[in-house]
Amino acid sequence: MSYILSVSIFPVDKGGESLSRYVSKVSKIIHSSGLEYVITPMATMIESENIDDLLNIVKMGIEALKEDSNRVYANMAIDYRKSGLGRLKQKVESLKSKI
């Protein structure tokens, strides 16, 4: 089985156009999880066999940003499939082969 989480977590009470200083805190949490992930300009995709691992990452990301922010926004979508891991790469390769 495989869960893919698409997640964006960032503070909404910071001025300026760039939030990478804050988003990188969440990215470090994702990286340290040891799970397969892909960073995109608008969200990060993470794959796991365990939904609790993914939800815990969201929780830790929000908690990390609460240290510097009064308001944190989190947006997520989850795709579940009974087949095994490796779908992050498979989905992209399948689409590219059809272009």
TrEMBL record:
Residues 6-95 form the Thiamine-binding protein domain. SUPFAM superfamilies: MTH1187/YkoF-like. It comes from the Bacteria. GO terms for cellular component: cytosol. Belongs to the UPF0045 family. PANTHER family: UPF0045 PROTEIN ECM15. This is MTH1187 family thiamine-binding protein. It comes from Candidatus Acididesulfobacter diazotrophicus.
